[in-house]
Design a protein that fits this description.
Strand content: 15-25%
Radius of gyration: 18 Å
CATH superfamily: Glutaredoxin
CATH architecture: 3-Layer(aba) Sandwich
CATH topology: Glutaredoxin
CATH class: Alpha Beta
Order of helices and strands: EHEEHEHEHHEEEH
Structural class: alpha+beta
Largest sheet: 4 strands, mixed
Distance between the termini: 33 Å
Oligomer: single chain
Number of domains: 1
Helix content: 25-40%
Number of helices: 6
Length: 203
Amino acid sequence: MMRHGEVPILFCQVPRSLLVRRVFAATAVLVLVTFAWGGASAPPMAVAATPANPAVPDWTLRTADGGEISLHGALARGPVLVVFWALWCNPCLHELPHLDALARDTAGRLTVLAVNQDSPRGLARVRPYLQSKKLGLTVPLDTSGDVARRMQVGGILPFLVLYDARGNELYRHIGYREGDEATLRDKVMALFGDAVTDSAGAK
């Protein structure tokens, strides 16, 4: 029960139609792979590099700026904040500028990956939106929803997880309300061993 004066947590649920399309696409790929291999033995698996931490699922995605990034590759450079968002999620859009500010303030010490969850049809609007808002975030594109499933996002956005450089999960949060950005910043600063700064800027 929400107390008087408390700011509610806002979140969005991934549309059922999008979830259905993603499941259908994943099933179609599985069928095609099985058919291609004649239904005999499973196709050979590529040997992956040693993961930063077995508990952290690795993934590689194209980014909105045309690049490519992997979770383990980012972890090799230090702590990582992974955030799932979409253009149709208003709480996500309210949170993005705070994430962008955090990424700028911790550049070189923290990698912020803002994983976009829009469908292929909405993909064309992602980069223009980022540019219009002057957001410099690294935005991997998870149009299939595969990464969200592997990281057990559960269909609720925004969703974020903070990892240390070894891939240990330090903090997880679902939804967004005003003030959450301060809590997240405190978690990140504590990870670096920095003094926590309050809203007035005093340490």
